[in-house]
Amino acid sequence: MFPLARRCAGGYHERMADNRTIELGGRAVALVVRRSKRARRLALRIPGHDDSVELVLPMRAPEADGLAFLRSRSSWVLDRLDRLPPRVPFADGAELPLGGVPHRLRWHPGDGPPVAIDGHDILVAGRQEHMARRFRDWLHTEARRRITPLARDKAAMIAAPVTRITIRDQKSRWGSCAPGGRLSFNWRLVLAPPPVLDYVVAHEVAHLSEPNHSPAFWRLVDRLTEGRETGRDWLRRHGPQLHRYG
Ligand SMILES: [Zn+2]
User: Fold this and answer.
1) What does the domain layout of the chain look like in residue ranges?
2) How many CB atoms lie within 10 A of CB 215?
3) Which residue of 32, 104, 118, 124 sits 20 to 30 Å from the alpha carbon of 11, by its own alpha carbon?
4) From the CA of 16, how far away is ligand 1's center (Å)?
5) Euclidean distance between CA atoms 60 and 65, whole angstroms
6) How many angstroms separate the alpha carbon of residue 65 from the centre of ligand 1?
7) How far is the CA of 149 from the centre of ligand 1 (A)?
8) How far is the CA of 127 from the centre of ligand 1 (A)?
9) Tell me: the pLDDT tens digits for 150-197?
10) Chain segment 92-117, per-residue pLDDT in tens
């Protein structure tokens, strides 16, 4: 798993979380309450992939304490939410990067392929109400098309078999790995510059042989990509923006 969890060989650890809405400063704010075995104190997070706030509770902390803590920090929360990059729905005229290169989405009714690239325009055919879904499906396919050969080539370099590649819409991860050579990647990586994608693929492939983020793991990543520093830095700075598309 990447980049939040420490271990990557144990499969998925779905978070125990529940979702609801809370009123803060007269605004309805989506709230995710999460119990954490690792947390030592109450904490608030703005994950940035949507407009929610996350309240992290140590296992034994009363939820009422957490909610009181959240209310006492409501102006901080609202300020952080207001600073999130704007959302960019997949609609006619939307600007978004493809492989890190700015493109403009155009609704293009008529004959032709469902999605076509014309210079820096992305033309989406069909009925307008299906445009967002059609383009999203295309991005999934495009992510798979770009990721699969990268993953297979890198896995071959270290003789580690890849048995399955899944493209997902993960909220907090760019990629993950599971026992048996199963890799998953976030479709949003197709929006990022190629060195970033290359780094994430190298990261997950390296986990096929090194489950933890040990020095040996990072040495292996460096054998598989030249983009480690660039990729990590880019994701730290621009990763939240990728979650604002679609
Ligand atoms: Zn990892």
Assistant:
1) 17-82, 95-242
2) 9
3) 32
4) 21
5) 11
6) 33
7) 20
8) 41
9) 999 999 999 999 999 999 988 778 999 998 999 999 999 999 999 999
10) 999 999 999 999 999 998 778 899 99
Find, among 134, 94, 93, the residue nearest to 112 by Cα. 134
Q: What's the burial of 119, exposed, middle or buried (CB within 10 Å: 0-12/13-18/19+)?
A: exposed
Q: 146-163 burial, b if ≥16 CB within 10 A, otherwise e?
A: bbbebbeebbeeeebebe
Instruction: Specify the DSSP element, H or E, that contains 182.
Output: strand 182-186
Topology of domain 95-242, CATH: Zincin-like (3.30.2010)
Alpha helices in 158-214 (DSSP H): 194-207
pTM of structure:
0.79
2 CA → ligand 1 middle, Å: 4
Q: Could you read off the pLDDT of 139-157 as tens digits, one per residue?
A: 999 999 999 999 999 999 9
